[in-house]
Specification:
With 444 residues, the protein is of the alpha/beta class. It has 15 helices and 19 strands. The strands form 5 sheets. It has a 6-stranded mixed beta sheet with strand order 9-8-10-6-7-12, covered by helices on one side. Strands 3-2-1-5 form a 4-stranded parallel beta sheet, sandwiched between helices. A 4-stranded antiparallel beta sheet has the order 13-19-18-15, with no helix packed on it. The longest helix has 24 residues.
Length: 444
């Protein structure tokens, strides 16, 4: 398949990164790609969507890897998967990959193995330069579920209208379900019998990098991968609820400048020049003369190792760094002249964070189940809310109007192909009820 045709199929199907920020996948494809790295790390604790895809759809994933290799001209595809999850892969299929362009690479069970800078190093040995993207070292990184969505688009002619989501944490049983995009999160919990959330809070994403859910209004998007439930009193929830103003005040009073937040930073350990303790100091003391330390926050991936594993004063450097990063981006400030490290710092091997230690430090051991069941059920929401911005880039523009009748899979919004964006589709049959506040509401 020609590269341009593959890009068109991906764009038309509305495929974006199935976890994280949701980068439009067709924009990642390039003839400059030498290696394709598949992110199969299941980075954060309790996140289990990829487990199901490994187990049930491995052959389809490998077929799509080969197709993408042909289209891009890349030399190899490498699936980075933690050794503890290798048992999920059918041995006969793994054996078939031996000596082919598709490699399955065991990576250590560390956090954050799914950060693209860490993942690219663990799978290829290359270090992405500061502030750069993987293509700068000839690599494309793609999520496991994103690959599966490409398979559905090519083989089944099916756009992204459903999303695999794991419901876990303080629930009777951890389950993975396939949910229509745009369904209200509250209705998902009610449909599976987990509707009693009194005294609890929900996180969209993992316990480290996930965001608190507005249970009355938030909906499933193309990037929703896990919905984790914890008691409202749990420290994971309390940390996320803390206002940044309070975090800054605590840091200004309690930080002893020990540098442990920097010493444990995964990107610092790979040779990047981010020094988290300096970001923390200039932010909490409003030292506007030290612009370089402010700008270093742009190198932060938000993993939270500094907060959960490094800081002994119970400060939240993650929140401060990400707050500074967001403010600088909004103001249009960029850091230039990034380093291109050739090797990690020599202390890295002694400072890796085992996932098991992270689980204990977070205090979530009691919520780690032995198994995650794939629960097969039909969801039939009366309404869905298709967000016009479920991705990095320009929001999609509606292609329908109020009163139009649509079928599941019909295009309802689209970003122009020359802009960074994607296509949105109806996830149920129904009628366009309203278009406002960044959503297209479809009612049965």
């Amino acid at each position: 398949m020609e590269l341009s045709k593959l890009q068109q199929i991906i764009y038309d199907a509305g495929i974006v990164g199935a976890g994280g920020a949701g980068f439009p996948t067709h924009k990642k494809l390039s003839p400059e790609i030498k290696q394709i790295v598949i992110n199969a790390a299941e980075c954060e604790p309790l996140m289990m969507v990829d487990h199901h895809i490994f187990k049930k759809h491995l052959r389809a994933i490998i077929d799509i890897m080969n197709l993408m290799l042909d289209a891009t001209g890349a030399e190899e595809a490498i699936m980075g998967i933690k050794g503890k999850n290798m048992h999920l892969l059918a041995p006969e299929i793994v054996k078939e990959t031996e000596g082919t362009r598709v490699k399955i690479k065991e990576i250590p069970d560390i956090y954050p193995a799914g950060d693209e800078v860490v993942l690219v190093y663990e799978t290829t040995g290359k270090i992405i330069p500061e502030g750069a993207i993987p293509i700068m070292v000839g690599v494309m990184v793609i999520n496991t579920e994103t690959l599966y969505n490409i398979k559905k688009a090519i083989v089944d002619n099916e756009p992204v209208v459903d999303k695999y989501v794991t419901l876990a944490g303080d629930v009777p049983a951890d389950i993975t379900v396939k949910v229509p995009v745009g369904m209200k999160i509250k209705e998902v919990f009610e449909a599976v019998g987990y509707g009693n959330l009194e005294g609890k809070a929900v996180i969209n994403g993992g316990p480290m990098m996930g965001k608190l859910v507005d249970i009355e209004n938030d909906v499933i998007t193309k990037t929703t991968k896990g919905l984790l439930v914890f008691p409202e009193t749990h420290n994971v929830i309390q940390r996320k609820k803390a206002p940044l103003s309070m975090t800054l005040k605590r840091a200004s009073a309690a930080c002893c400048n020990c540098t442990m937040c920097t010493d444990m930073c995964p990107r610092y350990l790979l040779g990047h020049s981010i020094q988290v303790h300096k970001v923390l100091h200039v932010a909490t003391h409003a030292n506007v003369n030290d612009s370089e330390s402010f700008l270093q926050s742009s190198l932060c991936c938000g993993c939270g190792v500094c907060t959960v594993m490094a800081c002994q004063q119970m400060i939240d450097p993650q929140a401060v760094s990400m707050g500074a990063k967001a403010a600088l981006a909004k103001a249009g400030y960029r850091r230039s002249g990034g380093l291109a490290p050739q090797k990690p710092r020599r202390e890295r091997e002694l400072r890796l964070v085992p996932s098991e230690k992270l689980i204990d430090r977070l205090g979530i051991r009691q919520y780690v189940k032995d198994t995650v069941k794939r629960k097969y059920m039909d969801f039939n929401p009366d309404e869905v809310y298709i967000a016009l911005s479920q991705h990095v880039g320009k929001p999609a523009d509606p292609t329908v109007k109020v009163g139009d009748v649509v079928k599941r899979g019909d295009v309802v919004a689209r970003t122009s192909e020359d802009a960074l964006g994607t296509t949105m589709h109806a996830s149920i049959d129904g009628k366009i009820k309203r278009i406002d506040n960044g959503y297209i509401v479809i009612a049965r």
